[in-house]
Amino acid sequence: MLENKQDLPEKPGIYIFKTAAGKTLYIGKALNLKKRVSQYFQKKDNPLLQNLLQRAGQLDYVVTATEHDALLLEANLVRSYQPPFNIRLKDDKNFPFIQITRNEEFPGIYYSRQVDAGNFGLGPLVSSQKTRKLIDTVTRLFRLRSCADTVFKKGIPCLYFHIERCSAPCAGKIDPRLYQRHARAAQDFLLGRKRKVALELAGMMRRCSAALDYEQAQKIKEDLELLESFSLRSYISVRARADWDILVCSSLGHESFFAFFSVVRGQVRKSEYLNLATIDSGEDEIMRGFILDFYRRRPLPGEIVVSRLPEQADVLERLLSVQAGRRVRLRTVRRGQKKKILDLALQNLALFIQKSDYRFLAAKIRQQLHLRFSPAHIEGYDISHLGEKNRVGARVVFKNGRPEKSSYRSYIIRSAAAGDTEAIKEVLLRRFGSGTEPPRRVDPPDDFNSKSWREQPDLLLIDGGLPQLTAARQIKRKLGLRSDLLALAKGEERIFLEDGSSLLLTPGSLSRHLFQNIRDEAHRRAVGHHRRRREKLPG
Question: What residues form DSSP beta bridges with 329?
Answer without folding.
Answer: 303
